[in-house]
# Entry
Amino acid sequence: MASNIPPGQQFIKKFPVRTAESQPTSTDTKTWTVRITGLVEEPITLSFDEIQSMDTLEVKSDFHCVETWSVPDNLWKGIRVKDLLEKASIKPEARFAMIKSWGGYDSDVDLEVLMADDTILAWERNGKPIEPEHGYPLRLIIPSRYAYKSVKWVVEIELIDEDRPGYWEKRGYHKRADVWAQERFDR
Ligand SMILES: Nc1nc2c(c(=O)[nH]1)N[C@H]1C(S)=C(S)[C@@H](COP(=O)(O)O)O[C@H]1N2
Ligand SMILES: [Mo]
# Structure
């Protein structure tokens, strides 16, 4: 567990499920792909196998929902989003990305945060495949931001120059969502 917890958060033991859209009807890794679109030299589509064959890493982190619950000590295994984006040659004007799920949920993320060393696209948690309801086969993990940025069932990363709000950001949640600065709501 991290030595401290962000202000206003409480650790809980059970991992709740929060899903705004419909869960994928199939999480077959043979057909799952992630597209990188928008402000890139060449849009690319990567299969689950191609992603899994990249350099993998494990990141241990606490998971903080804006509703004030936190799940401590998750060991996520996946690949760095930075490595993925480098395959697509991002245009210099890209400053944000819209991360999109299979069922239409989305969240906007600062490119800088997306490129951080601990921002990963994960398929395992604590040594086991992520449960389907928690985002299998590929879920984004951004430890420093509230969990609504950690999009489950990722199918597309769209690079953009002007920020635009995702699903919860449209409904009042903060566009940056820094857990240590308690950026919960945008006023
Ligand atoms: N695709 C998708 N990703 C999502 C959400 C969602 O509704 N759909 N909810 C977000 C919110 S608000 C939270 S708190 C976490 C919850 O993750 P969990 O369901 O694995 O606990 O996922 C985030 N990612
Ligand atoms: Mo959340």
